[in-house]
Amino acid sequence: MEIVLHEASTNTPCVTCGRSDDVIKVPVNGNVNGDVKEEDRIFSRLPQKDPIDITFENITYTASLGFRKGQKEILHNINGRFPPGQLIAIMGPSGAGKSTLLDVLSGYRISGIGGTVYTNGRPRDLNAFRKLSCYITQDDRLQPLLTVWENMKIAADLKLGENIPIYEKEDIIREILDTLGLAASINTRAGRLSGGQKKRLSIALELIDNPLVMFLDEPTTGLDSSSCSQCVKLLQELARQGRTIVCTIHQPSASLFQLFDLVYVLSSGDCLYQGTTEKMIPFLESVQLPCPMYHNPADYVIELACAEYGEDKIKTMVEATNNGKNLQWFDKPEFLPSLRKLRETHKSIAEKSKGGHLQSTSQANQLKILLRRGFLKSKRDSTLTYMRIAVNILVGLLFGVIYWQAGEHGGKVLDNYNLLFSILMHHMMSTMMLTILTFPSEMSILTKEHFNRWYSLKMYYLSITIVDLPLSIFCCVAFTAITYWMTGQPLEWQRIGMFTVISLLVVFVAQSFGLMIGAIFDVVNGTFVGPVLSVPMMMFAGFGVTLRDLPPHLYWGSYISYLRYGLEGIVGAIYGLDRPTIYCPDEDYCHYKYPEKFLKEISMKGDQFWNDVIALVLILFFLRIVAFVLLRWKLMAVR
Ligand SMILES: Nc1ncnc2c1ncn2[C@@H]1O[C@H](COP(=O)(O)OP(=O)(O)OP(=O)(O)O)[C@@H](O)[C@H]1O
């Protein structure tokens, strides 16, 4: 795809390429001071025009290798300067520490860090900085079932707040999509976009609130050379508007390399070079390591960083750059303002990003938007929705056929008891496993969106709880209606109500249990841990071993098993409430004709319904709170 320059309708020079749906129109009329012309609409919406200069001194990052395994220092006292209006590439071989440095500078990593990061000459105020910056991860964490427009609309509603009218938000979205060449893909689901389009959508989503600093982890990975240069050209032009744009990059081609303004080369956590792309060759010559003729300087510096020409060369370069302190290879280094000068000339970023909350919109509005997105996703994920309904109906019918009219037959009381336990198993496994299998896939999107301040974790958690309610209730009620009627349980409203309430509570508790496991484990570990932890719950439910026969020192287990309360509750609903003698057709001896006798034998009482409800509700709240705390911990632990 050829990249050409042409005039946009606003007489703004634009960089575009051939294919109509892949056109990137980039206004290039801003300047490095962040002064933006009014006709340049997206960028004229910048809430603050004061650009951000990032300086870092003596940065170390030490990762813990695990219990009693010691620690590993990954970044070693590195220094650097990322001025505004520049497109900066952090380069280096694999494992050099590029992503780690990006994580440290963006504030994504907060533990194990030494040294100081300055923004406009002042030590970085992390919360204020997060409000002015964004982080675009290497993998495109988009909502695959939502279209480009829907993804953008949700992001705009969350990031621009309630005060901006809808038409204005839509204008902003259209303008960004147009600028990024995504206008023709507005109705395409994000999951069906090409790699380059996904990358552009990731950038578009974060551009909505016009961040002054953008961190991108390997934005060109997985793109063909044409998409790579389109993407980098776009970033270059965004930088020209006064933003500070920092990205990690593996090994750029010579043409891609020259699109960057500044390069920061890392090798095993040390800085080998910092300066403009043009001055890298003179720098290499100054340290007696001239770049061979016709060699891509980017390739050569990576070869040097990989110690292909000897370890001593790395040492020489680290010394020459003073581990990033040396700024002589910048363009006009004598004009680079000192930290003190920056402090004097710029407002503190904490002052600029006013307001106490990290998010731009109220919690109630966040919830409303997240619910809208959640219901839309459920509607789009029709396979899963129909499968859940179908499974509940089919299993209900299967139970109905196997235990046909067992509930009203005095000779089949034990069979009916087996049925009641099987119903609980169905509720537990179908909801718990579904949550364990689906929730971890949301984690990566949650991590990105939460870090980029789209919403608070509380509102996200509340929304996923509410979104699943209607379908869970429908499936449970449909299943209950089928099995209850087909298996001949007593058709009394009170018993039906009790049975349904206990079934629903078991479904909700199992879902919370799944959420708790899904919050800390990945799919593989979760699918192992979930069922394994459920086995003791079954043992303590009083089904295989009656509660009376449980060893006294293990009796506590029955108090924490939600299945015990579930079983007691539904057994009480069917055989409690002084149920009269059960009809025994064509049998001489009918052992469980008297429901009370049966209840006594399984050492359960038929009048514990409310106690069981209270116990299940308490367990439900407990598990929901634990799942939330674990989720919060997980989000912080990765940082
Ligand atoms: N939490 C951690 N625990 C242990 N080692 C870590 C941790 N995080 C990073 N490392 C190590 O630090 C080094 C730098 O990792 P980083 O991901 O920053 O490299 P990179 O330059 O981005 O590599 P790549 O280009 O392959 O992504 C690697 O050797 C990695 O194994």
From TrEMBL:
Keyword line: ATP-binding, Membrane, Nucleotide-binding, Transmembrane, Transmembrane helix, Transport
CDD domains: ABCG_EPDR (cd03213)
Protein's membrane topology: Multi-pass membrane protein
Membrane-spanning intervals of the chain: 386-406, 418-439, 460-486, 498-521, 528-547, 613-633
Record's protein name: ABC transporter domain-containing protein
A Gene Ontology cellular-component term: plasma membrane
Entry similarity comment: Belongs to the ABC transporter superfamily. ABCG family. Eye pigment precursor importer (TC 3.A.1.204) subfamily.
Annotated compartments: Membrane
Taxonomic superkingdom: Eukaryota
Domain ABC transporter: from-to ranges: 54-293
Upper lineage: Eukaryota, Metazoa, Ecdysozoa, Arthropoda, Hexapoda
